[in-house]
Amino acid sequence: MSDQAHRGTIFLEDGEVLSQESHAGDQYLLRLWAPECARHARPGSFAHLRCDPLLPMRRPLSIMRADPAQSWVELLYKAVGSGTRLLAAKQPGERISLLGPIGNPFAARPERPRPLLVGGGVGIPPMIFLADALRHDRTYRPFAILGSEVPFPFQPRPSQHLVPGVPAGAIACMPLLDDWGIPSRLASLQGWAGCFEGYVTDLARIWLESLDPAARAEVEVFACGPHPMLEAVAALARDFALPCQVSLEEFMACAVGGCAGCVVQIQTAEGPAMKRVCVDGPVFDAYEVFGR
Questions:
Q1: pTM (2 decimals)?
Q2: In this prediction, what percent of the chain has a pLDDT beyond 70?
Q3: Using CA of residue 274, residue 276, residue 277, residue 279, what is the dihedral sign?
């Protein structure tokens, strides 16, 4: 996609901090008043934030939720460097320069009404945004599997939704999804109560194997998380011959396609091509990234 296609769809706003919640593992949930970003954001898109006036380089953060009616967006992030630590210090009422929404979103298809959403770590937010969008369309029956090796940025609880095929002991869920009527299960290697002991792909495989062929043919996989996890998700989807979309995480400078600092090699019908994760992605067909 050309740079021209994105003109008029990315907005520069002086956002205002509405709230900032801290969670274990240096994780933060930031809610910003940003009307244009909230109005145009789609699941998979992200925002590029100036964490502090003294820090010129912006930071890309995935959008977890957007409320166009109330003009806010929520971003879940982990404070890992100087920029995000400055961002974590922001208080309600402070202003933050925001550029967004950026990137091509996930696209669910009605012929695949059983979306499997797989999120790992800071890759969880786009899955929440996608679940939020899907819950308003009765065509879809999504199921989310979320994994983390640091404490989840929410208090897990036993799910009120039965998921056939999932091991009986795996009952922990994300409360927000549960309240939306979307079943979810949590996976970790940390031995936390109610969580599946293993990788998200291990649990996804168990669930997929429990489906009959007709039900499995209704599944499409959506994923965001660390590169090794995405590669494993793509391999899992390949094993079951399922379509799969992945959102890539790359370091970005400009985030609007100008610097080409976030390029990745993609396999296209015409052969290998270099694509920019910011504006050509961040969502790609998994098989274009990891091969068939």
A1: 0.93
A2: 94
A3: negative
